[in-house]
Design goal:
heterodimer; A: mainly alpha; 7 helices; about 70% helix; globular; B: mainly alpha; 2 helices
C-alpha cells in the first residue's frame, strides 16, 4: 500500500470545508434533518398521550428507533466483518464499514440506554434495575466499546482488520440474546410494542417517522465515518512513507 | 411551548429528546472536524468518493 513518494516539502493541499461530503450525502443529510424535524413535531406535539404510559409514550418514538438502529449497526458490522474475512471479498473497505457502523451503533445503543432510563423513571419509578433486558443491553454496549478499543490496538491495517473482524463475529451473537431476553426471561421490561400491535394511528405513525429518520441519519453518519477512516488510513500510509524516506536519507 | 412545559413528566420527556439529538449533533460535528483535520494531509485525487 505504501507508495514511494519522497518526503514532501510541498505545502499541504487545501482542505475543503466538508472533505467527506458528496452530492448524495448532502441530500441525505437534508432528508435526515427534515425527518428529525418531523420526529420532534409528531413526538412532542402532534401525537396523543397513551392511556397507560400517558406522556411517557413520547420517549418511545426515540427509544425504539435508536434500539433498532443499534441492532442494524451491529448486524452490518458483523456482515462487513464476515466479508473481510472471506478471501474472495477481502478488502479494507469492509473493515472500515464495520468500524464505522460499530461506532455509530455504540452511539445509538448509548441513546437507547439513556432514553430507556428516563422512561423507566416515569414507568417504574427508577432509572435502572438489573432485569434481563437492561442487563443484556448494557453488556452489548460494553462489548462494542471493547470492539472499538480492539480496533485501536495498533499494528498494520490488515492486522487491525483481522482481529476486529473475529471479535465482531463473536459480538454480534449477543444481539438476538438482547432482543429475545424479554421473551425468554419475562423481565420488568415490556414486550415488543409494535409486534403486539399496541400502537395505532398517529402514535404508530410517529414511531415510523422516528425509525425512518434515524435510519437515514445512520446511513449519513456511517458514510461520513467510513470516509474519515479511509482518510486516516491514508494519513498513516503517508506518514510511514515519509519516515521510510527520511531513514533512507540518513543512511 | 408553554403547553409542553405543563406536560406531565416534561423534564424526562424533553430531556430524552435533548440528550438524543444533542449526542447525535456532537458526534456529527466532531466527525466532520476529524474529517477536515485528516483531509489536510491527503490530496483531493486520493479521495475516491470525489
Amino acid at each position: 500500500m505504501n507508495t514511494m513518494t519522497p518526503p514532501t516539502s510541498t505545502p499541504a493541499p487545501a482542505s475543503p470545508k466538508h472533505p467527506t461530503s458528496t452530492r448524495f450525502t448532502r441530500a441525505l443529510g437534508v432528508a435526515s434533518l427534515v425527518g428529525i424535524g418531523w420526529l420532534v413535531a409528531f413526538g412532542l406535539f402532534l401525537s396523543p398521550n397513551d392511556r397507560v404510559h400517558k406522556t411517557g409514550v413520547r420517549i418511545l418514538y426515540i427509544h425504539v428507533p435508536s434500539a433498532w438502529l443499534a441492532y442494524l449497526a451491529f448486524g452490518v458490522t458483523g456482515i462487513a466483518s464476515g466479508l473481510y474475512l472471506w478471501k474472495r471479498t477481502r478488502s479494507l473497505m469492509w473493515d472500515r464499514l464495520a468500524g464505522a457502523s460499530a461506532e455509530v451503533g455504540v452511539l445509538f445503543m448509548g441513546i437507547t440506554l439513556v432514553s430507556g432510563s428516563l422512561w423507566g423513571r416515569i414507568s417504574w419509578g427508577t432509572y435502572w434495575t438489573w432485569d434481563a433486558r437492561l442487563t443484556t443491553t448494557a453488556f452489548l454496549f460494553v462489548t462494542y466499546i471493547g470492539y472499538l478499543a480492539v480496533r485501536d490496538l495498533g499494528g498494520t491495517h490488515q492486522q487491525r482488520a483481522r482481529r476486529s473482524a473475529v471479535m465482531a463475529l463473536l459480538a454480534v451473537l449477543e444481539v438476538p440474546l438482547v432482543h429475545y431476553s424479554v421473551k425468554w426471561w419475562r423481565p420488568l421490561h415490556q414486550n415488543e410494542t409494535v409486534e403486539e400491535g399496541k400502537l395505532s394511528g398517529l402514535m404508530l405513525f410517529s414511531l415510523f417517522v422516528g425509525i425512518i429518520s434515524f435510519t437515514l441519519l445512520y446511513v449519513w453518519l456511517v458514510m461520513h465515518r467510513q470516509r474519515v477512516l479511509a482518510l486516516n488510513d491514508q494519513v498513516d500510509d503517508r506518514g510511514l512513507d515519509v519516515a521510510l524516506a527520511a531513514r533512507r536519507e540518513e543512511s | 411551548m408553554p403547553a409542553m412545559l405543563a406536560m406531565e413528566n416534561a423534564a424526562y420527556v424533553i430531556g430524552s429528546y435533548v440528550v438524543t439529538l444533542g449526542a447525535i449533533g456532537v458526534y456529527a460535528v466532531s466527525m466532520l472536524a476529524r474529517a477536515r483535520k485528516a483531509a489536510r494531509s491527503v490530496p483531493d485525487e486520493e479521495r475516491p468518493w470525489k
